[in-house]
Amino acid sequence: MSESPIISLRDVRRDYALGAERVHALQGVSLDVARGDYVAIVGPSGCGKSTLLNLIGVIDQPTSGSVTIDGKRVDAMSDREATQFRLRNIGFVFQRFYLMPILSALENVALPMAEAGVPKDERVKRASGLLTYVWLGNRQRHRPSEMSGGEQQRVAIARALANQPKLLLADEPTGELDAKTGTEIIALFQRLNNDGTTIVVVTHDEDLASAAKRKIHMRDGRVVDG
Amino acid sequence: MLLALLLLPLLTQDSTVTARRSTEARGTRTIAIDEVLADQAHLHVGDRVSISPRPNAPGDTVIIAAIVRRGADPSEVARGDLRVRLHLDQLQTLSGYSDRVDRFAIQTSPVADLPRLIERINDVAFGFRAYRSRDIAVETSRTFQVVSRFHRAIGIITIVASSVFLLCIMVLKVEERRRDIAALRLMGISRSTVVRAIVVEAALIAVLGSLLGIVLGWMVSLFVNWHYQAVYRTPLAFSMVTPPIVVVAVLLSLALGIGAGIAASLRLVRQPPLALFGR
Amino acid sequence: MRAVLAKASLVRHRARTMLAILGVAIAAAMLLDMVMLATGMRESFRELLLTRGFQLRLAPKGTLPFDTDATIADVASVVATLRRNPDVREISPVLGGSIHIPIRGRDLSASILGIDPRVQGDYELLSGTDLTAPNTIVVNQRLLRELGSKLGDTIQVSTGYDPQTRSYSGQRALVVTGTVRFLYGASDQSAAAVRRETLQQMNAQSPTRAGDRASLFMIRVRDNANVEAIRRWIEAQLPNVSALSIATAIAQVDQRLSYFRQLALILGAVSLFVGFLLVTTLVTVSVNERAGEIAVLRAIGVSRTHVIEQVVVEGVFISLIGAIIGLLLGLITARYLNSILSAFPGLPMAIDFFLFQPVAAWSALGLLIASGIGAGVYPAYRAASLPISETLRREAIA
Fold it and tell me: What subunits touch chain C, counting only 3 or more CB pairs under 8 A?
């Protein structure tokens, strides 16, 4: 018996207004992602791949269609339900890292745990462990301004893993990094997936896309391949 | 009822509100009352009343011949006194004052040499002194002087407070545009150009704000006068917006607005553009 | 964590935060001053009236005590009538007037009170002895200085002076036995007190002031007595007098000085509004700058409520610190403003226009802090409610 997919989209559309015009960012997308998979979504700029990722990450809602994550329908959740769902089930990594500049690396990683109600000692221990996992064990007290781009992105990845999410989503994670640093991130994603994390990345980076187990091609708001 | 003697008020020019005078009945004297008293006691011209120097003592029956509005005397404003005007001889008899008065008021011809006249009177004065009305006014308006000083202090505090508020809000608003400023600087626009642009904007806002403030101040002044003139039944002007006040207010707000704009913009242009982007 | 984030956010923009705190402090100071002004006069006047425990005052009908030269005749009869009420414990008749003292070729005038030293409530003795004997006088320090005299000296005091003939009437030699502080005395007033019968004897020749008269009666009633009922009874028994309770006296003074209360109300409201505006502006600018950060917090699962709380905590920090500084600033400016208003001619020295009353002050500052909370809520709610994906996209472009 095959396991149910961790992500399941059926005929998902997303429209929004841009000035006087109506933009159809997604036009009836249906796809499944299996547990433990490592998927790269690729396509030209404006094809709707980031929009798709946002819907999977429950930070946006579709105009129509259904989105199911880990067996739960997420497309019609209230803001509170969606927030809780994101906190406990999804880790998000952004192109621009988006770390809190006023917090140290350790505090940044601990932030989602604090929100989830994890006691202080526990979250310090876990955050420290996560930073070690991403090879930043000796940089825990540093602020983002004292780190390179690659280090910041690794902190962001550690933060995304804070509450042991079922799903890791990454939007252009190597977009602001040089090639060498990008390689480190690619290696990290590989390691995460080998350790069982389901990963979906949106990327222009060919190397990152090639490292994935599966590629989904998009164009003009539709899945054309994969 | 208070009895007060005012023949020709030194400080005020009373105007007679109700000019109709009733004919004196034979033997019945007439008096004039102020409009506050007329209002409170529901008296009208032609009414007969009894006046006496002590409560419940026998007195004279008189007819109210006129209702008078008091002049604009700031020292009287809040006292709530009620005023009655009698013929001098009647009041002297009633009060047992005999042939005495508290003061004489003298109206001189427009070309009179007042200092010399005062000197001549004082030379021959026997137990009294002559003063210019203006000098007396200064002496008796000490209350008003205290209030003026208080207003001035409040005004100064308000200006200082407003300056801080203005600077605060200017800094915040200019900071909101730090990225725009950074982009301009990266493009090669000089610091002085950026500062000038912000200062021009601040000056414009200051000018518009001043105009609005003057209109608002004038309207508030009208309201204050309307309200307090009604409360105290006096023609005294409590608030006046004069040209010098307008000029001072505009210049001050311009100076503050432009100053705040300069301070706020200098703060930002001194930082490297990339720092403004947060890098 | 929220407090840590809030504090760190404020520290990040130090100058801006300090400026906002200063602005709130000034608003708090003005608000405090206006609260002190609104209630100060009334409360300090009430305290003054109750200093010696006299709850009722009788003045000639239609007047306030010492507002005019009018007097109440036949003091003995008035006292006898008052004594018929078992709630009346003590009666202190006071006769006011003015005296003239020839000194170094000129006439020195001062105000005088004729009192009964056993029940008087008008002064406290500072040095020397009270009016235990007839033909004695106690003076305030200003008058003593003007006379150039010392305790034990005899001075010629008259109650009448005709400037035309430069002659004195009602003259008597009185021995200065003590210096006093008049409770209701103004700072710029020379004043003295003698026994009431002494003053009456000196007034005997005056056509308008002769006889058994008083300008004022001060009455102390039994504990727990109904002051208002006694007041009404007195006015019914004595139609020639106006009986004033503390409440009535305060109401009269309130009416005369209503301008200051209204000014206090208006300026206080403006201060509160400005404080609110400052915090709102600061919080709005702060969250607008951090729209991306806030969107990320929401994206990683921080709830809207917690985001709002963090932002509101920033507003509270500023309001709280500003309120504390404002309290100190307000007390200093209140002293300065009080010194200006204390120069009102004839105002008793004991009256303060600005009186610090803990309950009123803390309420006002609490209101300011509450408004600081309110000021932060709306901009925070708006920022936390922005669509996450759209905000991230906009921030990425920016």
Answer: A, B
